[in-house]
Specification:
mainly alpha; 82 residues; 0% strand
């Protein structure tokens, strides 16, 4: 049970870090020249990427709390068992 909770937390951190990387790359593209007019990025695209970045940050924090809670629970169980 605890290991599945830990695994869920780790998976959450991984997924949110990937999302953060994707959003950061989208933000970084703003300063790069575009080859096609269809590639033009609007202010809304940048704002959306910044909001996504913040959402992924909160996701990492939430997943880290899951890991910490599972770790503390495991520690408590080991203390009780000892």
């Amino acid at each position: 049970m605890i290991s599945s909770v830990l695994q869920s937390g780790v998976q959450g951190v991984k997924q949110n870090l990937q999302g953060m990387e994707k959003a950061a790359n989208e933000i970084a593209k703003v300063e790069q020249p575009v080859e096609e007019p269809s590639e033009l990025r609007t202010v809304n695209d940048v704002v959306e990427s910044i909001v996504d970045l913040k959402l992924y940050e909160n996701g990492v924090k939430a997943s880290a709390k899951v890991i910490k809670t599972a770790d503390e629970t495991l520690g408590t169980l080991l203390d009780i068992k000892a």
